[in-house]
Structure formats: structure tokens, C-alpha cells
Known about the structure:
Mean pLDDT: 96
Helix content: 40-55%
Distance between the termini: 63 Å
CATH class of the domain at 4-165: Mainly Alpha
Strand order of the largest sheet: 3-4-5-9-6
CATH topology of the domain at 4-165: Neurolysin, domain 3
Amino acid sequence: MSNPLLDFSALPAFDRITPSDVAPALDTLLARANQALETVTAPQFPARWSAIAAVLDVATEQLGRSWGVVSHLNSVADTPELRAAYNEALPRVTEFWTRLGADERLYAKYKAIDPATLNDEQRQALKNAVRNFVLSGAELTGAAKERFAQIQERQAELAQKFSENTLDATDAYSYYARADELHGVPADVQQAALEAARAEGKDGYKLILKMPCYLPVMQFAASSTLRETLYHAHVTRASDQSTGDAAQYDNTALIQQILALRQEEAHLLGYANFGEVSVVPKMAESADEVITFLRDLATRARPYAEKDVADLRAFAAESLALPNPQPWDWPYVAEKLKEARYAFSEQEIKQYFTAPKVLAGLFKIIETLFEVAIRPDHAPVWHPAVQFYRIERGGELVGQFYLDQPARTGKRGGAWMDDMRTRWLRPDTGVLQTPVAHLVCNFASGVDGKPALLTHDDVITLFHEFGHGLHHMLTQVNERDVSGIGGVEWDAVELPSQFMENFCWEWDVLQHMTAHVETDEPLPRALFDKMLAAKNFQSGMQTLRQIEFSLFDMLLHTAHNPAHDFMPLLTQVRDEVAVLQPPAFSRTMHTFSHIFAGGYAAGYYSYKWAEVLSADAYAAFEETIGADGAPNADTGRRYRQTILEAGGSRPAMESFKAFRGREPSLDALLRHQGMA
Length: 676
């Protein structure tokens, strides 16, 4: 049977792909890509955008698509065999991309292209390409170029190992609790834990560190001892504080090596530090501008955060007999205070958010606002829980997406959107290729034959990832490199995702996406009003926590010596920013995959930066809301056309100004978060 990783005629045959397909497919695809590179860099080959695209981009797009499928499976369906095949192939793939990005012959060919022969999209793509060549070491020569390539390959290996350690350390831990230890823990969480233990033939309730189990235990378990047990396991994952078998997953040395390689890469490119390299293709002008932005926001948020902590301490002492709460007590205290202050609990709300109903409500707002239709579709999938859909406008296919919601063993934690295929007017066939996305979450599964229940935070996560998906799928750009999220500055890429989160707080939207799991009744207005009142509960503390991560990330990549332990820097940042200090044994940065394995190095600030953009963009909807409370269709159309459809075909600031008519302002963010 032919290799499914070499078939580009349709969607990937996820049901047929095996680990043994990986190496032979890459042999073929790397050979084709190398041949294409030699063809277009030959002296007689014309320096024309379309000519290069028809040969090189076609070959590299196929390589990227196949490798993307393998990488995706490695994230959502990890097995020892697949991991081995992935790790064996990773150096070869990395070596090719590194060599391609630094090829001085190709760089010269691109520089020789006459911009006057290009359309606007191609001009932007060419500008990005030339910049990326420089950042990829194309101007380096001799030993420096060789060393740069070695650094890229080693960084890819280390990032993969960091991810594996994080996943394995999370999967390796379990605690079998007695029934009397679980007082307060939600019934559905207890049921899932009971079933998990039974499936292994064990007594008790199997508690794990995946979020659908860990978070409710921290919020609701009455036993401080149980909370402490899980907290300690969670914050020491993949670190030098891990004990027993878990010590094999320590990420300490990997982090040190990653940081040293990044600094060496920056020096080779002529920059003082990696932070400077990171901001070159971003909206921010400099690392200093980012640090100033974060410290300014921290100053504004601090009084609110200090009041948050004072409220928690007073409540813990007066109502919970906890005069000196410990770090594992704070989520519990916060949940109890929220229940007391706003007279509702997360658990009560969760009963109204069944996964199918939430999805139907999400689709309804997308269809109304962006004038599209979302329909179930068919495609091979990697797990029975995966759903597949198509998006149409006027009967025409716009894009398709896979939706993988439940958490499970062998699937990495968190939530993300990945582009599987990009919109592209193909230069080889002249056919318009439509975009396809992966939308991945880690929610609890349904128990006792009932649908899965989502927390309101889960709902926000789902809307967030769909925002990314819409950015990728609703694009009208035909040039692959600036289509959808392609070519969008990294610190602007979170705008559409965070923008979508706002709808999770609109009554007109929520009433269409709730139905009580037992009674089918929609969310009562009185309960929604309580949720809304509690929306900015602890927003000061949450803002400072994000700033703590962001500031640490940027200082780690600008002011830190990689040869030294980074824990003192983390302590220094916490002393400056945090209002609650974690215990000395806490090692949360050892699983900070965003910056050590996820492309956010010296870029984690992007979340806060883009929050400013998204809050201001959403304010345009607030300003034009209809008498019936429904979002204004004209505003939705304008947002779609100026932001989503434009993709990366122009600088993000230009797109924002096209929508808002001005530059962004911090006011909407502070107002949305109750800090105005």
C-alpha cells in the first residue's frame, strides 16, 4: 500500500499512518525539497517570485505538511514507536529547514527579485523572507554558519526532550485517594477518578496532574493535606525537586543548554542577547519597550492585586479558620470567597455548560458575526473523540477544521490551534487551496453516559482557540507565506483569539449555549449576573501573574547569564511583581513549555500586548451593540475584512488602524478587567 504521508490529494489518512511510514516519507520529501533548492539556486534560474514558488515552495509545502502531520500526532497520540520515529527524523528535518533559511544562493535570488513585478501580498511576503534570511544566518559564512546550523539542530532536540519530560512527568504521577479524602470534590471528578482506578484494577480514586482532575481538587477538596500532596507533585514536575522515578524527567540541564544556545545564536547574528533577536519580527520596537510596558501595567495593577490578597487573607481567617494560608490553600480560599461573595460556585455553573450545547452556541455566534455556515464533515481522524467540520460562505468551501476536545494519556496538556494546510493559490496547479486547522483542548470527558461538562474557563479556552482558527481559516489572502496567521507578528497573533473570549461574557451569546445537564434548562439570568459580577474577581492578581511570567521570560533572554542558575532571577522578578510568593521548592518554570518548547521565547509578553489590542477591538462592538443586545453585523463584517481576512498581508498595526481608525489604547483593557 502506498505511503499515506506522501498522498496530498486529500486530507491526511490519520487512520492509516503508522510510525514506520515516517522515515521513508521523509526520505522522499527531503530529496524532492533538496532537488528543488538546487534547481532554483542554479545561476540560470530566473529571479522571479512565481518561478521560485512553482518549484521550491511546492516541494517545501509538501514537506511541511507531512512533517506537520507527524508532529501533530506526536502531540495528540504519543506512543513509544511514534516518539522514536519522530525523534529519529527531527534532526534531518531541522537540518534541512536551517540550511534552506541560511542558503546564501537563495537569499541572493530573493534579493534580486524586482518588487515592482509583485502584487501587495507578494511584496509583504518578500520583505518578510529577506528579513528571515538574515535572522536565519544567511549572511554568516564559514565556521559561524556551520555553528549556527548546529545550534538550530541542537535546540530542536532539546525543545523536544523538554516537551517529552513535561508530558512524561505529568503522566507518571498518580495518587490513589480514599473516599473520605475527597470531601468537597465535584461528583463528576470523583466518578472519573473512581473509573480510572477501577480500569487499573485498583482500589480508591485515581487522582492525576492533568487539569480536568488537578484544578477541581485544588479548588474544592476540603482536605488541605490532599491539596498539599497534589500541589507539591504539580509544581515540582520535571525538576530537580522531583523524587523517586520522576527524577529522570528533570528539565534543569535542558533549560540551561537552551538558554546558552539562544545567547550564542544572538551573538552570531550580531545582537547583544536573544531578546533583541526575538523582537525583530514583532510589533514591539525593542526589548526595553516590552519591559517598560510590562512594568507600567504592573504598577497600574498592583493596588488591585494587593486588595485581592487582603480580601483572601481576611476571608480565610474569619470564615475558614485559616489564619496563615499556604500556597496550596489559595485556590480553595479563592473559590470559597467567590461562592460567599457572589453566591455561586464553578460547580453550579458547570452543570449548564455541556460540550455539545457550548459548541452549538459558539458556531451560532461565528455564523452570525462572520456570515459563514459551519457544517459537520467527514475525514479520517486519529481518535474516535475527534470531530471534523467545514466552513462555507454562500455554499462555497472556506475552510475545514478538526476539533479534539478531551484530555487523555499520551496527549500533551494545554490547548492550541495548528495550521494543517494554508490557503494558497497554488503556483503548480493554479487551484485555490483552502485552509485546514487543528483545534486541540484538554477538557474532562463525560461520565455515566452524560455529555462532557465544561467550566466557564473551558468555554473561554474553546472560544480562544477558535479565534486563532478563524484567523487561519477566514483569510482571503492567496499568498501562502502571508495567508491566515502566516507572517502575522507574533505579538499580534493573539488578537483574534483573545477577542473571541469577550463573547463568553455576553448574555445574548451565553443563553444560546447553555442547557442544564439534568433538566435542559438554560442558564438563569440571575446566575449569569452573579458570574458577571465575579468576572474581575482577582483580576489584579491574575494580571500580575501574567506579568511575572512575561517579565521573567524577557529578562531571562536579555539580562541573565545562562551559565548561572535562573532561580535567583525568578525570585527577583517575584519580589518586584508578585503579591503571593510560592514556596522555595516550587519549580513551575521547569514545565514552562511556551518559552522552552513552544515558540514564545522572549515573547510571552505577547499575551498581554495582544490583550490591549483585543480589548480595544472589542470595544468597537460595545460601541455599536444593538438594542436587542446582539453584536452589530456591520462591525462584525468590518472586523472580518480588516483583521481576519487580511492575515499577514500587511503589518498588524495597519490592520488594527483600518478597523479602529486609530492606534490602540490601554484604556479598554483596564476597563474590561475592572482596573480603570
